[in-house]
């Protein structure tokens, strides 16, 4: 279900960006304001563009979100402050209602949350060798590297 929600959000984001680009081009008088003159196939192009964006949106969550292991040796008491410092340094705050085996962090900044379409949650599970992080790929990679570097 999460995959479908992410796909729909990404599709809507792509369509809004495309509409803004077309509106700017029309307002700047770079292109004509008639859809049938902007695109080769006229109004038929609209559903073709929407279909192409739907394909991109359907594929994106598969590659944009991942789960990665961060090796952080030490006991819970030793690695807990390291985790908290790294998350705060990257602009994350812990969500209330912590589960026993999982911690959830969200971006502090509303602007960051908006650009990520409110899909900014990082779920962290303690493992035998460190932490397992799940969330947006670029953020998970950045956090794993920071955890590894701070733990050494």
If you had to describe this structure to a student in words, what would you say it looks like?
- The protein has helices at 2-27, 35-38, 44-64, 76-89, 110-115, 137-151, and strands at residues 65-71, 92-94, 102-107, 122-126, 130-136.
- The protein has a five-stranded antiparallel sheet.
- The chain is 57% helix and 18% strand.
- Strand 4 and strand 5 form a beta hairpin.
- The radius of gyration is 21 Å and the shape is elongated.
Features:
152 residues, alpha+beta, 5-stranded antiparallel sheet, 6 helices, 57% helix, 18% strand
List the helices and strands and how they pair.
Elements: H1 2-27, H2 35-38, H3 44-64, E1 65-71, H4 76-89, E2 92-94, E3 102-107, H5 110-115, E4 122-126, E5 130-136, H6 137-151
Antiparallel strand pairs: 1-5, 2-3, 3-4, 4-5
Number of helices, counting only DSSP H or I runs of 4 residues or more: 6
Please report which band the strand proportion falls in: under 5%, 5-15%, 15-25%, 25-35%, 35-45% or over 45%: 15-25%
Order of helices and strands: HHHEHEEHEEH
- Largest beta-sheet details: 5 strands, antiparallel
Radius of gyration: 21 Å
Structural class: alpha+beta
Placed side by side, the strands forming the largest sheet appear as 1-5-4-3-2
Q: Measure the end-to-end span.
A: 38 Å
What portion of residues is helical? 55-70%
Low-pLDDT stretches: none
List the quaternary state of the chains: single chain
Mean pLDDT: 83
How many runs of DSSP E, i.e. beta strands? 5
Q: Any idea what the shape is?
A: elongated
């Amino acid at each position: 279900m999460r995959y479908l929600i992410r796909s729909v959000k990404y599709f809507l984001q792509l369509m809004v960006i495309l509409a803004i680009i077309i509106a700017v081009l029309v307002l700047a008088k770079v292109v004509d304001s008639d859809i049938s003159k902007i695109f080769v196939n006229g109004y038929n192009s609209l559903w073709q563009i929407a279909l192409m964006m739907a394909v991109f949106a359907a594929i994106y969550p598969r590659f944009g979100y991942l789960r990665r292991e961060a090796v952080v040796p030490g006991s819970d008491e030793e690695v807990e402050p390291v985790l908290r410092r790294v998350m705060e340094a990257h602009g994350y705050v812990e969500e209330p209602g912590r589960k026993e085996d999982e911690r959830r962090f969200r971006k502090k900044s509303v602007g960051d949350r908006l650009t990520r379409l409110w899909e900014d949650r990082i779920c962290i599970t303690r493992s035998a060798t460190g932490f397992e992080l799940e969330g947006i790929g670029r953020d998970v990679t950045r956090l794993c590297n920071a955890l590894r570097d701070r733990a050494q």
